[in-house]
Amino acid sequence: MRNGDTPLMDADRFAAYIVRRLSLHDDVIEVRERRGDDLILRVRGNDVTVNLRRLYDAYVKNPDQLDAIMQTIVSAATHDIPARDRRDFASLRERIFPMLKPINLLVFVRERNLPMLVYRPFLADLMITYVVDEARSVAYINEQHLERWGVGEREIHELALRNLRRRTDEQAPYAMIGEGDQRLFIFNSNDGYDATRLLLTDILATWAQHVSGHLVIGIPNRDFLIALGDANPDILRSVAAQIQIDAVQRDYGLTDRLFTLVGGEVREYEMI
Length: 272
Prior knowledge:
This protein has about 270 residues and is an alpha+beta fold. It has 3 domains: about 1-80, no CATH class; about 80-170, no CATH class; about 175-270, no CATH class. It contains 9 helices and 13 strands. The protein has helices spanning about 10-20, 50-60, 65-75, 85-90, 105-110, 145-150, 155-170, 200-210, 235-250; strands at about 30-35, 40-45, 45-50, 95-100, 120, 125-135, 135-140, 175, 185, 215-220, 225-230, 260, 265-270. It has a 6-stranded antiparallel sheet. Strands 4, 5, 6 and 7 form a 4-stranded antiparallel sheet that branches. It starts with 10 loop residues before the first helix and ends with a strand. The model is unreliable at about 80-85 (pLDDT under 50).
């Protein structure tokens, strides 16, 4: 059992669940057939085989990471960007963004001998990856892309943050709800980058000036960020409890850990 009430899926139900979830990506992924433990996909004109047994074993070992496992499948199937030279990089610059992901995604990448993703370790078993935004999906940037484009990780990181800041200003305004110690700040645009806006420390610093106590931030899943002050411990405990639930139950779960801003940098927050 998981979470006290929800039973583990058996292998067949797990496979059916994976197929249903992949249907959300039917613009780039076509499920062709299942052959025993292998799922045959058609991705951008190429056949891709996904071994369900290995994924099911990972799910049984850590059921709470089901959404991370799902995203790993999509990432692995669509990881490659067509071979582009330096001129093509210039055309992609405006579509490169950072994205927070569970760091255990790297295990799957290594096991499948895929090109290593470009990433930076972050906090709470998360990492910063970098993607090219492809309308209804993303393509992860790997080390081979940097070599081909002739750019470094630092340049990609700084470019991705600038693009995220610009996109946030243009398309993803935050909501401010409540007053005093009940004031909340929320990003919930569902553009895939709401949690990653934790990296926009200038926005967090502005929020910190308008809450009671220290700023506390939660990113339970990819499409949600919430921030509040810690002056009222009852309110903070209530929000923290909901973050724990959402990190497990919502799609694209990330972490139930809390964060704060110290000296202009994001740090993990410890409940007292």
